[in-house]
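User: Run a structure prediction on this.
Assistant: Running it now.
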Amino acid sequence: MPAPKNRFKERLKAGETQIGCWLGMAQPYVAEMAADTGFDVLVIDAEHAPVDIGSLMGQLQAMATSDVQPLVRLLVGETHLIKQALDIGAQNLMIPMIESRQHAEAMSRAMYYPPRGIRGVGAGIARASRFSAIADYQSSADDEVCLFLQVESRKGIEALDEILSVDGVDGIFIGPGDLAADMGFAANPAAPEFRQTIIDTIKKIHTGGKAAGILAVDDNLARTCIDMGVEFVATDVDVPLFIGAMKAAAARFKPGGKTRPDKPVKNPY
């Protein structure tokens, strides 16, 4: 039996646009709830959220019974973190702050078993192979892993042609927050010059034969990216969605608050 088919990777290759949501609440309970809300992809953020390896595995387990595809953003681009994430069952990884061909090559090699790469051989005791129940895991895993590299600085943009030439990289993800800050547009990410940089970068990624991805919480930017055929567009983040809903609920019956239209209420208890 081979490694499980990677539907996220298959849809990238087919040129389909997949819509995603960021998970920063670092809890399997939240991931399980989010898994059945209709998003194609959920990004587990182990860079800026308090996600350790146990929390990461728990979130992967929580999504396992749904059709949603998990994409794990690691803390940093280190080979040992890639090995550990793959062994606990992640198939789709995103690596932040890639700024050179050398770093991109190192990340690509870490994804694959020898002789193609340097991934350590040990999944026979790990969740990735269902603890050796997947007999052909090692011989088939390379075909079912997917690597997104994040370009989110001026240096990364300058090195984009070289990064795009690296074998084993499935897509390039534009990190608009860090890129805007690095370009001096942190206070005005809607600036035409910055938006044009994003558009130009997407075009270059596609010309280079890779899938493109972006976090676009601004609806206008998200629509532009979808219209351009960007293969992965993350449109929302769980933390502000939760906070926004909680604030609205808290204010609903206070002076000046907006109540919901009258309708039958189903008791959740």
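The chain has a mean pLDDT of 95.
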